[in-house]
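Researcher: I'm preparing a figure for a lab meeting and need a structural model of a single chain. I don't have an experimental structure, so a prediction will have to do for now. The sequence is pasted below. Please return the structure as tokens so I can convert it later.
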Amino acid sequence: MSKLTIETDEHTIRRLEALAAILAQPQETLVSRALEVYLQELEEEVARAEATREQLAMYALPSWREDDLDDFLAYLREERQQSLQDEFAKQ
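Model: Understood. Here is the structure written out token by token.
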């Protein structure tokens, strides 16, 4: 298994330590599981965005620029990431 170093705020570290103690699980295990869940959700979201992109492409006007859609999808990904960060900050 590969190792990864991450940086996060103290509040997140304290939450991780508390959960690890309650669940009697190593912090690394919890972080690994959380990362897997997050990546799965992100992959599904990207797949949905790509499907939407394909649907929108069918209705594209002749002046439609493909790069505009990529920028829009990137914007949606950034907004989703910010939304997820805001959700985690509330916890």
